[in-house]
Design brief:
- About 40% of the residues lie in helices and about 20% in strands.
- It contains 13 helices and 14 strands.
- Strands 3-2-1-4-5 form a 5-stranded parallel beta sheet, with helices on both faces. Strands 10-9-8-13-14 form a 5-stranded antiparallel beta sheet, covered by helices on one side.
- Helix 2 crosses helix 8, helix 4 packs across helix 5 and helix 11 packs antiparallel against helix 12.
- The chain is elongated.
- The protein starts with 8 loop residues before the first helix and ends with a helix.
Length: about 400
């Protein structure tokens, strides 16, 4: 049998042993070793594979990844830029909610997964595919986040999760077996040394875990952080920013020092990433409770998200009724838990987002802040919707002091 142009010879040798055709599967593809091996393995199982690669702000050569997937036998490759939707439809609701999981984690990965999975399901529906597949492991949160979104948006979809299938994980118990499989099947193997930890990046954050980081006593090694500078060596002059909010959403950022202005959601967020990264803002090192019942050590960089968390918290406190805010804080806690656990598209998740958005109607105004040496410091705020009455405060204090004077005169 002749090989088709651009097709590795090993593909022909495999065809005789392939399983019965199983139809089309849409694979959430990253271009890395794991999902490249999964792509070839799915073909061996009898699937026609369509690769879906979401550009959600990670540093990636998307054209190279497209060519790689096609060379490995993908029937088609979709590369979709979802950065703007990620900011406007996922990050902004989290900003409105002041979403934070277990007091510290700003949910960067948890917010990205339903955005990616939505695109995956969209391609499945376009292609008429009954299956989707992903490369998430069987002990992490991402498998849950991907699959709950897929089932919510398309209840009839079937999910293929190779790392939970004995025929896959018994065949590939470690990285060495994956590397051997890759070499055997013409899958390009990384030539650069692998970092002794895993990373996952999107526009909002980057996470580091596993490997040498699994020992929670080990500090972050030199060279780990990629989105933020070391605060100790960051600039000795702060950047002072003014961030304007409408309905709890940032609509404008101005750099007071150099006059830079950003208004569109994506440009605004990317600019804040740059400023925060320059000053080493947004680093955390935590142990968190995973949905699957285990504790996990994670190191995160969330530059722009950290600035917006502090700014929104301030303008909300300035403009929201005290009793409403007490209730909203409870909703935010539940919102964060649902997002972390993968329930973005659940009925309760949609209800919470609606309630939180309603609470933000009067959350408008401008916050001035300083970004400097790993810290965000609020400098001031102004709002047409402020519930702060300077005159009332001044009069109450005046009369309190006046009553003391009167009492003393009467003695």
């Amino acid at each position: 049998m002749d090989t088709q142009p651009g097709q590795p010879a090993s593909h022909v040798l495999r065809r005789g042993t392939m399983a019965q055709p199983k139809g089309t599967v849409i694979l959430a593809y990253s271009g890395g070793l794991d999902t490249s091996c999964i792509l070839v393995w799915l073909k061996e199982q009898g699937y026609d594979v369509v690769a879906y690669l979401a550009n959600i702000g990670q540093k990636e050569d998307f054209e190279a990844a497209r060519k790689k997937a096609l060379a490995l036998g993908a029937k088609k490759v979709y590369v979709e830029d979802v950065c703007r939707e990620f900011v406007e439809e996922f990050i902004w609701p989290a900003v409105q909610a002041n979403a934070v999981y277990e007091d510290r984690y700003l949910l960067g990965t948890a917010l990205a997964r339903p955005c990616i999975a939505r695109g995956l399901v969209g391609v499945a529906q376009k292609e008429g595919a009954r299956h989707v597949a992903h490369g998430a492991t069987g002990k992490g949160n991402d498998q849950v986040r991907f699959e709950l979104t897929c089932y919510a948006l398309c209840p009839s979809i079937k999910v293929v999760a190779p790392w939970r299938l004995p025929e896959f994980y018994q065949r590939f118990p470690g990285r060495r077996e994956l590397m051997d499989y890759a070499q055997k099947h013409g899958i390009p193997v990384p030539v650069t040394p692998q970092t002794p930890w895993s990373m996952d990046e999107n526009l909002m954050h980057i996470s580091y875990e596993a490997g040498i980081l699994e020992n929670p006593k080990n500090p972050a090694p030199p060279g780990l952080y990629t989105k933020t500078c070391d605060p100790a060596t960051s600039p000795d002059t702060p950047d002072v920013l003014e961030i304007e909010f409408e309905k709890g959403v940032p609509v404008k950022v101005t750099n007071v020092g150099d006059g830079t202005v950003r208004r569109s959601a994506l440009e605004l967020f990317m600019y804040l990433n740059d400023i925060a990264g320059k000053h080493g803002v947004g680093r955390i090192d935590i142990v968190e409770n995973r949905f699957v019942g285990m504790k996990s050590r994670g190191i995160y960089e969330t530059p722009a998200g950290t600035i917006l968390y502090h700014a929104h918290l301030d303008i909300e406190a300035f403009t929201m009724d005290r009793e409403v805010r007490k209730i909203k804080q409870g909703l935010s806690l539940k919102f964060s838990e649902l997002v972390y656990n993968g329930f973005w598209h659940s009925p309760e998740g949609e209800f919470l987002r609606h309630c939180i958005a309603r609470s933000q109607q009067a959350v408008a105004g401008t916050v001035r802040l300083s970004v400097f040496k790993g810290h965000v410091s609020i400098l001031g705020r102004a709002s047409p919707c402020s519930l702060y009455n300077e005159e009332l405060v001044r009069l109450k204090e005046y009369h309190r002091l006046q009553s003391k004077v009167t009492a003393k005169q009467a003695e």
